[in-house]
Amino acid sequence: MRQKYNELNRDLIVNINGELAHRDKAGVSPFDSAVQNGDAVWEGLRLYEGRVFKLREHLDRLRKSAELLQYEGLPDDDYIVEQLTRTLEANGMYDGVHVRLTVSRGLKYTSGLDPRVNLGRCSLFVLAEHKPPVYDKTGITLITAQHRRPPANVLNQVIHSCNQLTSILAKLEANAAGADDALLLDLNGNLAETNATHVFIAKAGKLLTSTTDACPTGITRATLLGLCQQHGIDHAVRDIPHAELFEAEEMFVTGTMGELVPVVELDGHAYAIGPMYERLSELFAAEVARCDDPPLVSQPR
Known about the structure:
The structure is a single chain. The protein has helices at 33-37, 55-68, 77-90, 165-177, 219-231, 275-289; strands at residues 13-16, 19-22, 40-48, 51-52, 97-104, 123-130, 140-148, 181-185, 191-194, 198-203, 206-209, 235-237, 250-255, 259-266, 269-270. By secondary structure, the protein is α+β, with helices and mostly antiparallel strands. It has 2 domains: 8-130, D-amino Acid Aminotransferase, Chain A, domain 1 (2-Layer Sandwich), CATH 3.30.470.10; 140-288, Alpha-Beta Barrel (D-amino Acid Aminotransferase, Chain A, domain 2).
């Protein structure tokens, strides 16, 4: 599945360190850490009727990632929200919007890997696009990638890093196989996630998902687990061997880019779009509708 070009995004205004510019005229220094080393962290946000769903949780995760990488000069939450709001207003955005919020270690005075050559102030990038959920709600297909997700002692997955080489390599495998995405295992052969989303399965009426030992934590994932707790849905977070995935009746993936999306095939094995997916989709939609955070932007007239 290739995302289609959206004509609404032709003249986007983007935000780089508080400066608003047309997408084709914005510039990033080659001395920025994001360019030099992929040394940046990010969050994907979704705008629903002027409100960003779980904004506080996303900002907390962004800050945690930056702290684990020992960033200096990270802008405070109020400044980030101010720049996010300015960007949405500049684009006249209100609904059906996905935001890529990125913070890098900032500018270096000379090229190199060593953070000690950084100038001590992070860079902030706000990219908002007209982008409804990107996956086909009728279902997607997956293949199991040969590439594996590394454990925390190789790469701490709590860090939501812009350096996504493992995901890119897995996505190349999926593209070559004609699948929508790739499913990744950890080094022990247990489920980790896909190249872009978390994975849930339904087996004998119980919802299962992997630990986050070899994948990032997820805001949508945590929301679903909370809904299960709230509504008495039997569930567990544990290691799931690859073979067990083929014993499940249902499989679906979650993420800010696509919300909840059913998987209809993994490695040629078919899955039904069943009652667990349908119930959780309804509960998630209701949770989004209940969001009572103050709106960042008003509906354009």
